[in-house]
Amino acid sequence: MDIDAARAKKERLMNLLREMPSLLVAFSGGTDSSFLLAVAYEVLKDRVAAATADSIIFPSRERDEAVEFAGKIGVEHIIFKSNESTLPEFTANGPDRCYFCKKALSVRLRRIAEEKGIKRIAFAANTDDMEDYRPGTKAAEEMGIISPLVKAGLNKEEIRFLSREMGLATWNKPSMACLATRIPYGTHITPEMLKIIEDAEEFLFGMGFRQIRVRHHGAVARIEVDMMGISRFLEGELRRKVVKRFRELGFKHVSLDLEGFVSGSMNRAL
Fold first, then answer.
1. DSSP letter at 269?
2. Domain span at residue 14?
């Protein structure tokens, strides 16, 4: 990574933000949105606010961490309820699922912005995100929501470096995606399935794993962890605890993906 280039991109980002009269940041609490929010607050102060969805598709831990981060920097933080499970296009879980989810989310964000008199809305996609299948990005763009990190040319590695340089605790936070991404396309999504996935992943977090996904294949749980985590499953006692807990959650079989964690691995079916 070119450190000077990364810093130059941050300056470009700040210049982009300075042009905005006010901004609402779609804030998940992850590395990217935390960086965007922190930089936006540095530039705009009380002319920026954060909005976080309280939803069954996001782990409650993520929401709590978002609240903590926003409180530390002192930015106005709006928590709003979203219920994707009422969208038939979402629960049908087709390849365009994310499009309809992001569209509905964008409508809510626009309503919040209008109520607050905020002129622009941003989400925290970075240039690496543009390399994967992201129908939700199209929906956001159609709704007039901007992606300043992309416009500034920032990728994930640069965002992590700059976040660490700024002293943000989120600089090395594991990547997170909505819980629906753990379910194969075409499998109907239910709130019960999402809760099982959240509980399974929370159990693994509690066992000390960091970068994980529990893919829900009906009766089978397919665990993805980083390469260092794979070797831990050779420990008999840990393996027995995982199998016991996952069976309590309703899985009949528990498998470990030998490839390890791969972001967007479900998109291979497309």
1. G
2. 3-172
By C-alpha distance, which of 65, 12, 70, 11 is closest to 38?
70
**Same-domain status, 55 and 158:** yes
- The chain-wide mean pLDDT, for the chain, equals 92
Dump pLDDT digits (tens) for 148-179.
Answer: 999 999 999 999 999 999 999 999 999 888 99
Q: How far apart are CA 195 and CA 220, in angstroms?
A: 15
Judge if 9 and 57 occupy the same domain.
yes
User: Considering the entire predicted model, what is its pTM?
Assistant: 0.89
Residue 27 maps to which CATH number?
A: 3.40.50.620
Give 224's strand partners: 213
SS3 at position 221? strand
pLDDT at residue 265, rounded to an integer: 64
Same domain, 145 and 42: yes
**Residue 208: C-alpha distances to residues 146, 196, 212 (Å):** 36, 19, 10
Characterize the bridge pairing of strands 212-217 and 220-225.
antiparallel
pLDDT digit string (tens) for 122-154?
Answer: 999 999 887 766 777 888 888 889 999 999 999
For residues 23, 29, 31, 33, the Cα torsion angle rounded to the nearest 10 degrees is -20
Say whether both 80 and 21 belong to one domain.
yes
Last residue of a domain, one of 152, 172, 192: 172
Question: How many domains does the chain contain in total?
Answer: 2
Residue closest to 39 by CA, chosen among 9, 77, 62: 9
Distances (CA, A) of 8 to 3, 34, 153, 188: 9, 19, 10, 45
